[in-house]
Amino acid sequence: MKEKLSKIMDEALSQIEASGELEKLNDIRVAFLGKKGELTSVLKGMKDVAPEDRPKVGQLVNEARTKIEAKLEEKKETFEKKLLEEKLKSETIDVTLPGKKLSQGHRHPNTITLEEVEDIFVGMGYQVVEGPEVEYDYYNFEALNIPANHPAKDEQDTFYITKDILLRSQTSSVQVHEMEKGKLPIRMIAPGRVFRSDEVDATHSPTFHQVEGLVIDKNITFADLKGTLQEFAVRLFGEGTKVKFRPHHFQFTEPSAEMDVTCFKCGGKGCRFCKGSGWVEILGCGMVHPHVLEMSGIDPEKYTGFAFGIGLERIALFNYEIDDMRLLYENDTRFLKQF
């Protein structure tokens, strides 16, 4: 029995020493110390040992178990130490190397411009109101006094989803929603994205942004419109900015006008940017058409109002002297880092 135990122990120690990986040690532990292992089988055969020899055999089995477990633990520590060294070696960080600089994002030129516009009008008592980009034809056209046969309703200009639903081509639809609420007076601007079937070039895009404004109250006149927009222009482009109103035609305003501001590049003297005129067009505006008020449930005999529409990209191009609108959408970090 003593020779058998010695042979089992020598074989176990030999296999432990020869093992080349941590997982192999578990197989050895099971083979020799498990429920069906070599040493366990010796213990099961104790019934065949003379009673007076059983204590001695039990002692020898325990000694063998202790030596095998100690060797297993020693080998395990060796493997773990080696693995740790390899891991530390592979994950070593050279603290003398320069650190990686994380690029920090910032606001887009459109966002900067919109915040400036909103700050100006909020400072004058206006509310910022938003509305749906997918709109009914009624709110986008009919309620704004644009009949069914108007050229603006052609599919070549507007993205129709169904006969009655479309991607809004102007944020004026938000004004109609506000007028229908019947909460007067109204002083609001409606910034947002709009969609038109335009070819992409330096000054056009199928998607762009507008900021439309609306004021409805008693005794509102064209003088209020001119004073408001002049104050807006001065705050946006700086002291000394002058404005000029030219007669125009819009279906939803009467009378209507386009507003120019003095060229901020040449100060009104005339240059290549303003094509020698000294003025640049900035927005369209006018007094709200009485029929538009009627369709929204507002009595045009008691209330009047004015509206205006600004192309946000146009303001951004002027502010930062950008000559191609496509630069705003191409996400070229070399361009965007300038702002």
Automatic annotation (TrEMBL):
Chief localization: cytoplasm
Cofactors that this protein relies on: Mg(2+)
MF annotations from Gene Ontology: phenylalanine-tRNA ligase activity
TM stretches of this protein: none
Keyword ATP-binding recorded: yes
PROSITE patterns: AA_TRNA_LIGASE_II (PS50862)
Enzyme class: ligase
Keyword Aminoacyl-tRNA synthetase: yes
Binding site for Mg(2+): E254
Annotated ranges, domain Aminoacyl-transfer RNA synthetases class-II family profile: 117-317
Keywords of this entry: Aminoacyl-tRNA synthetase, ATP-binding, Coiled coil, Cytoplasm, Ligase, Magnesium, Metal-binding, Nucleotide-binding, Protein biosynthesis
Enzyme Commission number: 6.1.1.20
InterPro entries, per the entry: aa-tRNA-synth_II (IPR006195), aa-tRNA-synth_II/BPL/LPL (IPR045864), Phe-tRNA-synth_IIc_asu (IPR004529), Phe-tRNA_ligase_II_N (IPR004188), Phe_tRNA_ligase_alpha1_bac (IPR022911), Phenylalanyl-tRNA_Synthase (IPR002319), tRNA-bd_arm (IPR010978)
Domain of life: Bacteria
Cofactor: binding details: Binds 2 magnesium ions per tetramer.
Chemical reaction(s) catalysed: tRNA(Phe) + L-phenylalanine + ATP = L-phenylalanyl-tRNA(Phe) + AMP + diphosphate + H(+)
Localization in the cell: Cytoplasm
Coiled-coil region list: 61-89
PANTHER family (UniProt xref): PHENYLALANINE--TRNA LIGASE, MITOCHONDRIAL, PHENYLALANYL-TRNA SYNTHETASE
Family, similarity comment: Belongs to the class-II aminoacyl-tRNA synthetase family. Phe-tRNA synthetase alpha subunit type 1 subfamily.
The protein's assembly and partners: Tetramer of two alpha and two beta subunits.
Name of the featured protein: Phenylalanine--tRNA ligase alpha subunit
Taxonomic source organism: Jutongia hominis
Taxonomic lineage from the root: Bacteria, Bacillati, Bacillota, Clostridia, Lachnospirales
This protein's encoding gene: pheS
